[in-house]
Amino acid sequence: MARTKSLRAAQVQTSVSTAFSSSSFATLFQGDCLDLLRSMPDASTQLVVTSPPYNLGKPYEKRGALEKYLAWQATVIDECVRVLAPKGSICWQVGNYVNAGEIVPLDIALYPAFVRHGLKLRNRIVWHFEHGLHCSNRLSGRHETILWFTKGDDYTFNLDPIRVPQKYPGKKHFKGPNAGKLSGNPLGKNPGDVWILPNVKNNHVEKTIHPCQFPVELVERLILSLTEVGDLVLDPFAGSGTSIAAALKNQRRGCGAELMPAYIEVAHARILQALNGQLPTRPMNTPVYDPAKAGRSLTTNSWSAPYPTSSQSPDQYRLLQERLAYQEAQ
Ligand SMILES: C[S@@+](CC[C@H](N)C(=O)[O-])C[C@H]1O[C@@H](n2cnc3c(N)ncnc32)[C@H](O)[C@@H]1O
User: Residue 187: CB partners within 8 Å, gap ≥ 6?
Assistant: First the structure.
């Protein structure tokens, strides 16, 4: 507790360093992550958490041959492994590379770049969200993954800070030696490896100009479980600075690189907000917004009309008929 307080006091006084220094609480390097990584000592980082470009031709990346992209990622991963502390973790959050309608899950493609260093995969976390592009010739993508690797078998993992409420908190053992006692852990349950967290779209409280932000909550789960107070968290592809800000919010040190000046500006502002305890966030474990429960008029559309009508398109009409038939059969 005393350590937390002194860290908080020190944070309020610090500014944001632009180059790595082991005494900085917050480092935001403007430039290529390989330059930042090569300036860092071996074993200096407890957690590397990042989402790299996916080679899709987004505004912040140049699309190229997949093999070239994977080779570049492997070079960055080599450096991340070098700066990783013995009890540390790497969390690489990725989706799909898409070429002419064919998808390549990047976690599968990048897995060998980690295991060739002897890293151990502890979880492949599925992050499920509700919003994204609507595909017409395949199912719309509604998940991405986080590969969580540890450097060794002795690694930091604290479950209690990330427990989620039990489904039936009052449930008790019904018979046996524990009859009458609570059957679940009163601190909550293990969150599992499927995380349902809204992605940061336009009306999200954390939204900035960056097109692909991490939700703070997602990084916080990793930081709280895989690091201790005062540890260093590194994001080589810092974007809007979410990982650094989430680290500072939780009394860890944060460090990251970002190429684009516009995102550096956003990241800098968010880091300062975090240092001053003013970072806007969607609180951890808030239930995902359910418009139907909220009683919004927007949810009353042609799909919820009781009967098919002639104003609907043939497809809507057919689907409504099928739905009615299904409801009647229940
Ligand atoms: C998927 S985004 C990361 C977003 C971030 N997780 C956030 O919460 O805002 C990837 C970022 O990597 C940056 N980037 C691309 N190549 C880079 C490089 N070689 N070094 C540093 N940053 C790079 C891009 O500009 C982009 O902002």
Answer: 160, 163
pLDDT tens profile 151-202: 999 999 999 999 998 888 888 898 999 999 888 888 899 999 999 999 998 8
Q: Which residue's CA is minimally distant from atom 22 of ligand 1?
A: 258
CB distance 260 to ligand 1 below 6 Å: yes
Pairing of strands 253-258, 232-235: parallel
Contact 135, 96 (CB under 8 A): no
Query: Is 245:154 a contact under the CB 8 Å cutoff?
Result: no
How many of the other CB atoms lie within 10 Å of CB of 194?
10
Whole-angstrom Cα distance, residue 116 to residue 113? 6
Residues counted in the chain = 330
Q: Do residues 129 and 86 touch, judged by C-beta distance below 8 A? A: no
Report the DSSP beta bridge partners of residue 89: 47, 150
pTM, full prediction:
0.86
Element holding 90 (H helix, E strand): strand 84-94
Q: Is 262 in the pocket of ligand 1 (CB under 6 A)?
A: no
The angle, 0 to 180 degrees and rounded to 10, between the axes of the packed helices 66-83 and 106-115 is: 40
Decide whether any atom of ligand 1 lies within 6 Å of the 60 Cβ.
Answer: yes
- The pair phi, psi for residue 107, each rounded to 5°, is -65, -40
| DSSP code at position 303 | G
